[in-house]
Amino acid sequence: MSGKKSNLQTEVTISKSEFKASVVKHLHCTLGTDENKANNHAWWKATCAAMQEQVLEGLRKTQKTHYLNDTRAVHYFSAEFLMGRLLSNNLQNFGLFDVANDALNELGVSLSDVLEEEPDMALGNGGLGRLAACFIDSLATMDLPAIGYGIHYEHGLFRQEIQGGAQIERPDSWRDYGNPWEICRPESIQEVSLYGYVETKYGENGRIQKEWHPGHIVKGVPWDIPVVGYGGKNVNVLRLWQSKSSGYFNWDVFNAGGYVDAQVENVQAETISKVLYPNDETEAGKELRLIQQYFFCACSLKDIIRRYKRAHGDDWSRFTDQVVIQLNDTHPAIAIPELMRILVDRAELDWDSAWAICTKVFAYTNHTLLPEALEKWPARMIEKILPRHLEIIYEINHRFMKEVDKKWPGDNEVKAKLSIIEEGNEKMVRMGNLSVIGSFAVNGVAEIHSKLVKQNLFPEFDALWPGKLTNVTNGITPRRWLKACNPSLSKLIDKKVGADWPLDLKQLEGLAKYADNKTFQKQFMQVKQQNKEVLAAEIKRSLDLDVDTNAIFDVQIKRLHEYKRQHLALLHIMALYRRLLENPDYDMHPRVFIFGAKAAPGYKLAKDIIFAINKVAEKINNDARVNNKLKVAFLPNYRVSLAEKMIPAADVSEQISTAGKEASGTGNMKLALNGAITVGTLDGANIEIAEEVGDDNIFIFGLTVDEVNALKKSGYKPYDYYYKNAEIKAVLDWMETDYFTPGKPGALSSIKQSLLDHGDQYLVLADYEAYSEAQKRVDEAYRDKERWARMAIINTAKMGKFTSDRSIQDYVERVWKLKSCPVNKA
Ligand code: GFP
Ligand code: GFP
């Protein structure tokens, strides 16, 4: 079959010579340099500027269309947006990638080098933040009126360095030299109040009125990042708030010689958007997080209301027709009492009318069942920072408790459980409960997770409001995660099923019929081989480590967390090493285990696991006895742009969380889409991936959710596994020697302790044997080249369900009730 052209009509048709001229113009006029002097960074900026001309024209038309059509819009509130790099994505979405490539070529510049100049926009931590980025890509692509709202962090997630095997956190300065995509909008600055006290007043006709006298006011300055839909027609906006002091600095104090004091308020105000997730181990850190959350919610609500009022004046009756707000986790939950405050205190609506509006506006996505991740704030902290909001939260709770009493009369236990307030030594405000109570829809992020949300986390809420709890399985944008990051595979796919799959991922299904076709298998695996070579070069560059691209590339990339069980993989790697030392002829296909992971700066054991992986890697990689079989590469500073290199090159995808703990996962989808085979537990979206690809094309192992619960109930004893399984024992004991950390015995023993003495909460030892056995199946399958190629092709072919376009369509139908609004030519 010959290559098919895409039906995609791109908005912009610009020739190579026009693009070239535009880049040169910006090099001269925007950057003030010229072709002879420009380095790659300057070329990058000039190329961005050339692109941005198209982007901003798209943005203008989109905003005009939305304005003229007075569209209902979804407002995606998220503390994280892990956007990654934008140039290549924007070029792809405008269909200008090849044009730019050729244009720069003629200028003697390599586009791929230029792309490497772009710092990642890493305003997020993990899955939830990258999900938000995929979702706004889909929203723009599907012509849906949408705005992303978040925080314009000065520093995103830290930059990770590895020194002596250990993680070192360095500030990430993504915009030190300017960000060519963002536009500051001083005309839309908002003010946000903090601290102070509440005055109770009695208005006419005896109505009680509350007035909040804030102690502190900060400014929110909006920065807009255009979000280009595929095809380049629709360009939405991600609006991020930067905090600024409202009163520059105190001249009087300054003149009196108090140079530092005069700027204290400044500094405090500007700290709000300084970093993502300040360490919350201190009281000040906790406060700062709460302030961050309130800051961006308050700015965003004011912005939404300003826009609404421009079209509808003071008539609130259409507000819920126009506005829906999706709360990405509980971080923005404080928006609920804030909207109540605006409606009751400012707009002077009665409580019931205000509540009716509120509960039609908000919807909430839950991303985790881990109790420690369900946010709670001390009531006294809210009282200090947001005194009026605490009153409102109490009032919401009071009325809600009455409702609970109607359903379960006199049942204090259920009341205590559902209450927004947790009583105890310290009164706490449960943001999860507040989110469920204040929203009209609540969703989990994969079938099993949503089921567990209903059964275990919020069963009473489900009984009280049947239908409110629902599921929307996560998805990923195939534009970034296949078309842009894996151009060779994309082109091969185009030849078989046409070029429209980026908009309709189910079309990949058409590849399945070539799964047994020898020629196609060869082509498919050749692409994989090329991608492995690219990654091998990156490993060489980054770690000075040579890896064999004929080895199995076994990839585990995700936040470092015990529930994700990177240490299960580590135990198995150590076991393989041991088997090879004991028997140099031990029969295994060569393997390279490749990791990417950051640990939260305050999470000691996670950092210990990173250290252990690096120490074990160092030993193995320098042990010539095993190096034709085994290597381990921990690539530092895992981020979106690194993922884009690792994912296309993976043969095996490690998705080995304890069943019931990983809400969904999205890396699992990206890897399978690029033809990696999953080794996974029956957890999160792995289950749905298995349903799609079939049992023959995935390696499932380990305890199920029910088995995990049963084992825990019966009293799990990790020592039983230690004594029963000689390999487990040997490997754990090995950690206590100085074999991997010469001169420092016991440097890795905290992992052993967590697995034995601290109870192995995540059942690593219980699943070890099944995991090790699954890995033998992987090894066997890989040696059969045709079988493996077939599996890989089927994985790619069956990933249609996991496009974020499908997730967004589910949200549109189940939650948002939103209509698309294609951009007019105007
Ligand atoms: C503009 C437009 C709106 C559009 C938003 C976000 O509003 O219709 O929805 O931008 O794209 F008028 P401002 O925030 O610029 O006022
Ligand atoms: C969380 C969950 C993941 C889920 C993502 C997106 O990720 O299972 O896929 O959210 O819904 F844990 P983190 O933000 O915690 O990495």
Automatic annotation (TrEMBL):
Task: Please give the residue positions where the record annotates the modification N6-(pyridoxal phosphate)lysine.
Answer: K670
Q: Name one GO molecular function term.
A: pyridoxal phosphate binding
* Class of this enzyme: transferase
InterPro entries, alphabetized: Glycg_phsphrylas, Glyco_trans_35, Pyridoxal_P_attach_site
Q: What residue ranges carry the coiled-coil annotation?
A: none
Q: Which UniProt keywords apply?
A: Allosteric enzyme, Carbohydrate metabolism, Glycosyltransferase, Pyridoxal phosphate, Transferase
Enzyme Commission number, as recorded: 2.4.1.1
From the UniProt record, give one GO term of the biological process aspect. Answer: glycogen catabolic process
Superkingdom per UniProt: Bacteria
According to the UniProt record, one GO cellular component term is: cytoplasm
Q: Which reaction does it catalyse?
A: [(1->4)-alpha-D-glucosyl](n) + phosphate = [(1->4)-alpha-D-glucosyl](n-1) + alpha-D-glucose 1-phosphate
Q: Return the protein name.
A: Alpha-1,4 glucan phosphorylase
